[in-house]
Structure formats: C-alpha cells, structure tokens
Amino acid sequence: MTLKGEAFFEVAHNPQKPFTVTSGAIKTCVLGTSFNINSSEKMTIIGVKTGKVAVKSTNNPQKRAVLTKNQQIVFEAGKTTKITRVDGLDITAWTRNEIVLNQTSLLETAKLLENQYDVTIDFEDESLKNYTLSGKFKDEKLENVLSSIALLKNLTIEYLTPKHILIRKKIQQS
Fold this sequence. Notes:
This protein is of the alpha+beta class. The protein contains three helices and twelve strands; from the N terminus they run βββββββαβαββαββ. The chain is elongated, with a radius of gyration of 17 Å.
C-alpha cells in the first residue's frame, strides 16, 4: 500500500501476507499492531499505539528501526532519525479532532494545523520554526489555536487570505 498524508491502521499479524505501507522513501512493515503514519513531502512520522512495526528508509538503508508500543520515529531529509516515547492516545489524537503538542516545534505545529484545517502557514522569520510548544486543543477553531500560540510566544498572526496565514514576531512598541 502507498500512503500520502496521514492514516491510522489496526492490522493483525499474518506471516503469509505481510502488510507494508510505503510513504515516500519510507517503508513500514507491520508485525501485528495499531500504528499511525503522517507523511508529507518533507517528513514522515510513524507512531505505534500497540504491537510492533519495522521501518526503513529506501533512500538510506542505515536508517531502520523496530518500533514498539508508545514509540515514534521521525524521518526528515538531512536530519538525524531518532526514536522517542509518546503517549499511545496522542498518536491518534487527530482521529478525535485533538491537537496534542509536546515540546513540538512551531514548524511541526504548522504542519499539523495545515493538515487539520486545510490552510497554508508561512513564517516571516525562519528562526520561528524552532520555537517549541506544549498543550492540547480539542475541537477548537483555528483562530483560537493560533491566538493561543501567538499569546504564548509573543507572535502576530496575519491572514493573507482566509486559507493563507503568515506568522511573524510581534513588533515591540516603544
């Protein structure tokens, strides 16, 4: 199976018919599990809720791992691949209209918001992408999520069009 975007799977182990998901240059081989894949042009995130999956990059055979319950891996071009611990419920938060941020970069947060709300988010200053956020939003309007982020990080949110948003540093009044 080939995936572009995000999907959650629950798969029974069957050695005679292995289930493999290809998302860009990343192959995920299921070993009996429930897991989530979020794949975009720039990065692929695989998180395991239950069971075990084997993951490898077809571009770089050294980038491979076996993930078990509550583990996540991020493949991003030019960056070190690392496995982190995650809450199993956080992996599937998007299926419940929740956004869960746990020291998540503003760049990753923007990608989540773009997927959830079908918008484009740009940054006026590249350094903003590295800001980190923690928090949860459930069934929240995009405007409320962005207002909260702006307040927490002293930012300005500008709507260039209803579907195109620019995030910039707040200009300090003298």
